Amino acid sequence: MELSPIRWTRLMRPMTSLLFGFAAMACQAGALLQCAVTYAGTTHQLKATPTTSPYAVKAIDIGGRFFFKMVLTESNATLSHVLLYVYLDQEPRPVLLQEAKYMGPFHLTSQPLALTGEQHLYGGPVERELIYSCWLQTAAP
């Protein structure tokens, strides 16, 4: 039995709606960046989600010595960039120690994707150490 194009369209319409529904749920889940940042024996668990205003993202003070900034940007509901910045807090202004750029596409699942590995940064006159590692995964809807 052969289906006419009209019958085929009628049969596929509910399946297409279902697939678009699943795609919308996946987009709503979005990306979640998590970083473990350690300085002076204290570990900070940081989280970030995609933003439409990357310049508005504030850096996080780490122990009064460093600033850590995480920026995720999306394009067409897909994570396109992950940017990480580490600054040494000193006078007269903070100094950028590291800028890391990770470009998509990223294939995110509920399982964490190791993004940075363990990073060790040193700064200041006595070479203070900041250690961090970050991973990506889908955020819960």
What does this structure look like?
It is a single chain. By secondary structure, the protein is an alpha+beta fold. The protein has a single domain, classed as Immunoglobulin-like, CATH 2.60.40. Helix content is 18%, strand content 48%. Strands 1, 2, 7, 8 and 9 form a 5-stranded antiparallel β-sheet that branches. The protein is globular and about 45 Å long.
Give a concise summary.
By secondary structure, this protein is α+β, with helices and mostly antiparallel strands.
CATH level 1 name:
Mainly Beta
Helix content: 10-25%
Order of helices and strands: HEEEEEEEEE
| Count of runs of 4 or more consecutive helical residues | 1
CATH topology title: Immunoglobulin-like
Mean pLDDT: 84
Please supply descriptive tags for the structure shown above.
9 strands, four-stranded antiparallel beta sheet, five-stranded antiparallel beta sheet, Immunoglobulin-like, alpha+beta, 141 residues
Strands, helices and their partners?
Layout: H1 5-29, E1 31-39, E2 42-48, E3 60-62, E4 66-75, E5 78-88, E6 95-103, E7 113-114, E8 119-123, E9 128-138
